[in-house]
Amino acid sequence: MNRFIWSLRRELWENPWLWRAPAAIAAVGFVGFVAYALGRLPAQVAGLAAVIAAHGSDHLREPYEVVAGVMMGIGLLLAVIYCVDALYGERRDRSVLLWKSLPVSDLETVLAKLCIPTVVLPAIVWGFTVVLQLAMLLASTAVLAAHGQSAATVWSSARVLADAGPLLYHLVALHGIATAPIYAWILLVSAWAPRAPLAWAILPPVAIGVLEKVALGTTRFAGLLLGRLGGGGAGASAGPSNGDMMQLMNPTLLGLVVAPAFWLGLAVAGLFVLGAVRVRRSAQPA
Amino acid sequence: MTTPVIDARGLRKTYGDTVALDGVDLRVDAGRIVGLIGPNGAGKTTLLNAVLGLVPHEGELRVLGRDPWRERAALMHDVAFIADVAVLPRWIRVSQLLDYVQAVHPRFVRARAESFLERTTIRATSKVKELSKGMVAQLHLAVVMAIDARLLVLDEPTLGLDIIYRKQLFDALLADYYERERTIVLATHAVEEIEHVVTDVVFLDRGRIALRATMDEVEQRYREVRVHPSRLDAARELVPIHEREALGQRIMLFEGVDAERLAALGEVRTPSVADLFIARVGDGARRPGS
User: What is the mean pLDDT of residues A193-215?
Assistant: First the structure.
C-alpha cells in the first residue's frame, strides 16, 4: 500500500499541472465572478422579486453551477491529456528503465496511473470547485454588505455546502470510476503506441463509430462513449430530472451499482488494464 | 555447489529476423566482477535486459534463483542496475528521487546515498534537468550504490562521461565491492577501462559467447609474443590465434602454448584484454565454425 501511495505521489510530482491547472482556472473564475458581483449582483438582489419572476428562483445559483461545470470539463480534459502521456512519456524519456529497476510491479504502476483520472483528479477538481464556490459566496457577501444588503438569499440559493457531497460523488463515481474503461483504453494505447498516442487512442473509436453509422445507420457507440465522458455514469438513471441543472445524483449510487453496464464497463477497464500491464512488461524506450 | 547468481542456458532472443542472442550459456557465481565485453550490436544490452527481466526470451534463465521475466518486481529487491543511458527523469528533484526510492525499496540506505552526494556538488533541491551529464551519472550511482543489492548490473555506465567521472565511478564501484559481498556485471565496449576492475571477462559477439574466462585463466592460457624476425616461421607453426604488426614487428597471440617454447620466439608477455578481445572478436578472428 505504501508503494502505491508513493506511486501516486510520484505522478503528482511529474504532473504538477494536474492540480495547478484547476487552481489557475479556479483563480480566473474567481476574478471573473468578482467582476460580475461588483457590477450586477447588488442590483439583482435588490430586485430579487423581479429576477425570480423573470428567471426563476435558481437564477442566483447559476454562476455556481457554471463554475462547477467548467471545472468538470477541465477535469475531463486533464484526465485525457494525462492518460495519453502516462505510459508513453516514461518510454519517451527512458525513465521506464529507472522505474523498472525498483521493486514496483507493472500492475501497481498501471493501477496507480489509472487511479489518477478516476479518483485523484476528480478529488482535486472537487476541492478547487468547492473552494472557488465558497470564495464566490464570501465575495458576494462582501459586495452585498458594502451596499447594505443581506447575503442570506445568495447563501440559500447557492447551496454550496449542501451540494458539496453530491458533487464529490458525481466527480468520483461518474466522471471517474464509471469512465474508467475510457481512461484504461487510453492507458493501454499510451503503453503501446510507437508514437502519436493521442491519434492511436482516438482513431479506433472514431472508426468504429463511423462504421456503425455507415453499416447500421445508428450512433449507439458514439452515444455510449459521449455518455460516459459526460458523466452519465453507466447509462443508468435514477428517474426523471428533479429540476437541478447539474443532476449531480443522477444516477444515484444505488442506480449505478445495480446497472449491469457499470460492471460491464469495469470489466472492460480491467481487460484494458491487464493489456497495459502486459505491454509495459516488455516496454522498451520509445 | 552454491547456486549461481546468474544461470543462463541456451538463451536466445530475436527481434524479427535479427538474432540478438543465439544460444548463450552463462554462469556467474557470487562475488565476481564480470566484464561483459562486445562490439556494438553484439547483444550485451539484450543479455542484460533478459537478466533484469525487461525482455522475454527463449531458453532457461535464473537470476538469484528466480525467473526474471516472471518475477521482475521481486527480483529487484536484490538487484540494482544502471541502464546504458541517463534514465533519470528530467523533472525529478534529487530529494524526491531519494524520497521515492526510500519509500519503495526496502534495501535502500538513504544515509549512504546522502553521504555519497555530500562529496559532490549536487544539491538536494536541484532538478535532474539542472544537472550536468556527469552529475546525473553521479546521482544515479549514489542511488544504486545505496541499495544493498546482491547483484549490480551496469550497462555502459561511463558512456559520454569525461575521464574524471569515469575514474570516480570505478573507484566508487571497487570501494563498494570490497565493503560488502556483491556480484557485479559490467557491460562495456571500452575494454581498457575495466581491465583492472574485473575478475572475469565474457566476450560477446553476434549474440554468442566468444570467450568466457577468469582473469587468472587469461593470464595462464594466453601469451602474446613480440616475435623476432628470424623466428616468424617457427612461431607460425605453433598456430597463433591472432597476428598483427606494430612498429615494424610481428606480434602473435597464442592460446595454451607453453611459455618456455614461446620464450624462444621473442619477448613474451600477458596480452591486454583489449588485444585478446581483438584476437577473439575483431576482424580476422577465427569464428566458431570457421
Answer: 93
